[in-house]
Design goal:
The complex is a heterodimer of chains A (314) and B (325). Helix content of chain A is 75%, strand content 0%. Chain A has 314 residues and is an all-alpha fold. Chain B is globular. Classes of the chains: A mainly alpha (314), B alpha/beta (325).
């Protein structure tokens, strides 16, 4: 098991390197000379050349990558073109906000998904099953920015019960003043993972309930509660894999929801940066989100292996 | 026969009901099993033998299964038994081993855990005590380096060892009745005979009754006291194992014997039974074997032949037997 962990962590390193290379190349893949996005178009030639040297853009690409990577490793993601502020600090703040939103949405979505999925599986073919599946299909089909707007109209405009924008008056604290701001975006964001997890759990549990060893367990006189333990342990690896991916999407893919609710997280930061063509910010934010994905996959892999002994064979 | 009656089935019928069709898997089966007795139910795929066996523990899918007639197992009426009573009977007084030891064991729990779980469930002893019992059981079923195997997962064992572990689970609470659903079919020929001999030895030592389902005549001859040959959900012939093997009365039994390699076949050609078993959702009115039978007469297709008794434990459902008697 220990060997597997070491090996799996070692695999993550080349993946991380490749991801950072892609992020680095973003600047150069974008059409035009990257220098044009830094200096105003009417700058004199000597000034442009000076900026080019300052940014190290006169050196060959591999050298530029090495320099950039050494800065990134030290936590220096460069400065934003728009605000001239260090990106790392802003990104930290925004990631914190996104993390709060993602964790809340994941908690709601995953618990709802597991509950509805298991209900549907155990009552397969009944109206309970149909209700749960109906919810799941609706959950994955409804565009969440649309749902977000509908929620704003109902709860903020008509009922005036919850705020429609922002993340509260100060830095994040778990009190009612701030949580009020979290409710609408978190619910909106939780609907897709809730639907997906419902379907995954239902499918997995039904498959397990049809397996021979369930008959063996019934034949041993194991009660329903004992049976549940076997079902959970068998279903966990599959469900966790989907959850891990979904959590990754919540961290990175909440651009639309964060924009609808003006939630000051990485999604909104990325959105603004794209509109301003603020390439260093896009680069930094993409890198952080991608690294988060790599880390998440690593964790899911390790947890799966801990649960299912068949995966320990390498 | 000796001792008390463990199983008594009278006119036992089992139907599987679904919106598309009603499948008559078992159509009026009568049998008894005494303590320490070994009965073998012989038949080809789809003859209803596994369904009959599973009904003894009510392991057929509960929503679709309709049982009728009467069936008592260890003194309990299996048609009316409560879930709680059923669950305390299962694995304690009556236990079952299955055909496919790979899929019949939970892949993510160790062998030791799956044995101990049963003991804890029925005897309420501590985990440590149950683990010790599990070790004894693995030694009882002759698993080498039992201590190490306790912590093994099913995929880490060979087919033969898995089936031995399955037997250990079944024996964990010293049942009075062991049900075996083709326990050697999925194993290599050499391993088959080992497992079979082990089962036979354990049955003698522990004094269990055993009902053994198989399509393999050789297996039946090895372990059984009595044989019941099943076709299309009915027992077409039954009797002590020697009598049935030496003097098969029913054409189907003769067909089975002629299609199998066994001691009496030296120098003879193997034959086949033409055709296929009937559709259980659409049974013919008369003898279900008549369409495949070379000796069928007009009277065969009129009514289901009655059971003709040829002795206290010997009988066959065939009109030709009546003529002979």
């Amino acid at each position: 098991m220990l060997l597997y962990i070491v090996r799996r962590v070692a695999y993550a390193i080349p993946i991380a390197l490749l991801v950072s290379l892609v992020c680095f190349m973003l600047v150069h893949i974008a059409p035009g000379d990257p220098i044009d996005s830094i200096v105003p178009p009417d700058t004199p030639k000597e000034a442009v050349e000076q900026v080019r040297r300052e940014y190290g853009l006169d050196k060959p690409l591999p050298v530029q990558f090495a320099v950039w990577l050494s800065h990134v490793v030290q936590g220096d993601l460069g400065r934003s073109i728009a605000s001239r502020r260090p990106i790392a600090g802003d990104l930290m703040l925004a990631s914190g906000k996104t993390f709060v939103l993602a964790v809340t949405a994941a908690t709601i979505g995953f618990s709802l998904g597991v509950a509805l999925g298991s209900l549907a599986a155990f009552f397969q073919g009944t109206w309970i099953d149909r209700l749960c599946v109906g919810f799941a299909v609706a959950g994955v089909s409804v565009p969440h920015y649309w749902l977000g707007m509908v929620m704003v109209i109902i709860f903020s405009v008509l009922l005036a019960a919850l705020p429609a924008m922002g993340a509260g008056p100060s830095d994040w604290v778990w009190d009612w003043v701030h949580i009020r701001f979290l409710i609408l975006p978190a619910i909106t964001l939780s609907v897709i993972p809730a639907g997906l997890i419902t379907r995954t759990v239902r499918g997995t549990v039904i498959e397990i309930l049809n397996q021979d060893f369930i008959t063996t367990l019934r034949g041993k006189g194991i009660r329903r509660s004992g049976l549940l333990l076997h079902v959970v342990k068998n279903a966990a690896p599959t469900v966790l894999a989907v959850m891990g991916l979904q959590f990754g999407y919540l961290m990175g893919g909440s651009i639309l929801v964060e924009s609808v609710f003006s939630w000051p997280g990485t999604g909104m930061m990325l959105n603004n940066a794209i509109f301003r063509r603020d390439i260093p910010v896009i680069q930094g934010a993409t890198l952080v989100l991608a690294m988060f994905f790599v880390l998440l996959n690593l964790i899911v892999d390790l947890v799966q292996t801990a649960i299912d002994p068949r995966m320990r064979r390498t | 026969m000796s001792g008390d009656i463990l199983v008594r089935a009278r006119d036992l019928s089992i139907e599987f009901v679904s919106p598309d069709a009603t499948v008559q898997a078992v159509n009026g089966v009568d049998f008894d099993l005494a303590e320490k007795e070994a009965l073998c139910i012989l038949g080809e795929s789809g003859s209803g033998k596994s369904v009959t066996l599973r009904s003894l523990l009510r392991l057929n899918p509960p929503k679709k299964t309709v049982m009728s007639g009467s069936l008592s197992v260890c003194g309990e009426d299996m048609l009316t038994i409560s879930d709680a009573k059923l669950n305390s009977l299962r694995g304690r007084l009556v236990s079952m081993i299955f055909q496919e030891p790979m899929t019949a064991l939970d892949p993510v729990f160790t062998i030791g855990r799956q044995i101990a779980e049963t003991i804890i469930r029925h005897e309420g002893i501590s985990r440590g005590e149950a683990d010790r019992r599990a070790l004894d059981l693995l030694e009882l079923v002759q698993i080498p380096s039992a201590k190490r195997r306790l912590a093994a997962y099913p995929h880490e064992l060979s087919g033969g060892l898995r089936q031995r572990a399955m037997i250990a689970i079944a024996l964990s609470c010293r049942p009075k009745l062991l049900l075996a659903d083709e326990p050697t079919t999925a194993l290599d020929a050499t391993v088959q005979i080992q497992v079979l001999l082990l089962l036979h030895k354990l049955q003698q030592e522990l004094g269990m009754g055993i009902i053994f389902v198989t399509h393999d005549l050789g297996v039946a001859g090895e372990i059984a006291d009595r044989i019941a040959v099943m076709y299309a959900g009915r027992f077409v012939e039954e009797g002590p194992v020697r009598d049935v093997m030496r003097q098969p009365m029913h054409p189907y039994t003769r067909g089975l014997l002629g299609a199998t390699v066994h001691a009496g076949m030296r120098g003879k050609r193997l034959t086949t039974i033409p055709g296929a078993p009937p559709d259980l959702s659409d049974l013919p009115p008369g003898c279900a074997f008549a369409p495949r039978c070379s000796e069928a007469t007009r009277s065969c297709t009129a009514d289901v032949p009655a059971l003709h008794k040829l002795g206290p434990e010997r009988g066959a459902r065939c009109v030709l037997v009546e003529d002979a008697a």
